[in-house]
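Support request, please re-run this one:
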Amino acid sequence: MNAAPADQIRLLDVQALDTRLTQLAHKRKTLPEHEEIQRLDADLAQLRDLLVAAQTEESDTAREQTKAEQDVDQVRQRAVRDQQRLDSGAVTNPKDLANLQSEIASLAKRQSDLEDVVLEVMERRESAAERSAELGERVESVGAKVQDATARRDAALEEIDAELAGVRKERETVAGAVPGELLKLYDKIREREGGVGAAKLYQRRCEGCRLELNITELNEVREAPADAVVRCENCRRILVRTPESGL
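Re-run finished. Output below.
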């Protein structure tokens, strides 16, 4: 294939723009905010699960406390009624009197036990409420960090996308000035060779594979017509000659 030396050098401009596009795409994909947001989202999900569990426990213990307090109240009311019967003198039979006194004592013990239950449930409820409050604050804090990281990521993406649009437009203009067959060959090689389809021959070294041409290869390049499209024998990329080639 033949192409004017100026067109071959222009191919290096296209390559530089393609390299920049690749760099920007990589930068866009590997922004540190991506990993930061992913980590924060995982932390936030875990904290929310813990918060739901604490809130559930708080709600359950609240119901449990209400039930225990109702039990205490029922026993207390019954004890009051029995004490009123005892104090009224209405019970005169010694056996009935003894039974009533025994029941009052039993109710007092039962009330004391139930009040201990109420205190234990209240402690668990307060503990759950404290955990809920603490976890709620942590959820709010991590949520704010997610918002901050998301804002930073979006700003970075917006900046990168703006540069990508500009480079794509410039690439379209520059590539439009390259002969179609030469550009087609370049694109084919670039796709196959990891994004690099054309490389400068600089000081007898291919800047594509970074290998220096041997004397035979150099002689072949020297003898090739100026408009000949030469290829690196090592990496098979288009080898563009310039005044800095060392020929």
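The chain has a mean pLDDT of 94. The two ends are 21 Å apart (CA to CA).
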